Amino acid sequence: GGQTRRSLRRAVELGDVWCPFSLATEQVATWLREAQDKEGWQSRGRPLGVAISTSLDPIGAPDQTAATMGELRAAGATKLTLRLVNRSLEQYLEQLEAMVDLAKTV
To answer: For 61, which DSSP code?
Structure first.
């Protein structure tokens, strides 16, 4: 994880996944584009995963949720760590089900 270019370089050289935090989506996209041009990226045996954590509300804001997922994918995210808006276990499970359905369309 990290919020610096150095953390991305470490992930490229030593890791399987980079988990950026406290960075704007466009910043992540820019840094990933820059990293892809470097020798370390080119010499990797397998692609670097990019896991981004985000808060989503697939029931209350499905259009925004889909847009956010699309933006993160376009920025280079290969995995999402989700925080679903909820106030109870029941609501969490409903949100999770809605997220599964919505993810199939994005």
So the answer is: -
Q: Specify the pTM.
A: 0.89
CA atoms lying within 13 Å on the CB side of residue 85: 10
Report how far residue 80's alpha carbon sits from residue 54's, in angstroms, rounded to the nearest whole number.
Answer: 7
By CB neighbour count within 10 A (0-12 exposed, 13-18 middle, 19+ buried), where does 62 fall?
Answer: middle
CB pairs under 8 A, 24+ apart, for 90-97? 94/59, 95/57, 95/58, 95/59
For the stretch 2-20, pLDDT in tens is: 999 999 999 999 999 999 9
Residue type, 96: L
Q: What single DSSP character describes residue 48?
A: P
Closest CA to 99 of 68, 78, 74: 68
